[in-house]
Amino acid sequence: xxxxxxxxxxxxxxxxxxxxxxxxxxxxxxxxxxxxxxxxxxxxxxxxxxxxxxxxxxxxxxxxxxxxxxxxxxxxxxxxxxxxxxxxxxxxxxxxxxxxxxxxxxxxxxxxxxxxxxxxxxxxxxxxxxxxxxxxxxxxxxxxxxxxxxxxxxxxxxxxxxxxxx
Length: 166
Description:
Blueprint: E1 17-19, E2 22-27, E3 32-40, E4 46-49, E5 52-58, E6 61-68, E7 79-84, E8 87-92, E9 98-110, E10 113-122, E11 131-134, H1 135-138, E12 142-144
């Protein structure tokens, strides 16, 4: 049996981006021009690596500043980011450990498309991927082909996107 597609008012099926199990993406509003993300349909929430997170107040609003090592296995490349706090949530990781995390909202750019994204911030230094793109972020926007990688494009020299990296 095939699956039903929801169509627009003219009857055309919706266009959805097809992603591999890992993709290069950008979070331009917070200064991350390129980061490799694991496309994780098993994770409800999208998560970004932040090796430090500091909260502060700006014009009466709650903000966070945080540091990201955007490239795998490299701590020499650092991007310092800041964003308004959207929420604080208790999140369970794949091992069942619960952690209270800051949540921010920022646009994600992938495969020529841009859409709003909610991200939790946590230290992922011990993890291979600096970011997880969870199923809530992809719902209605993307399909995942788990046997493919980089369907939205490969990056040969990701370090060249960050000043001062070797």
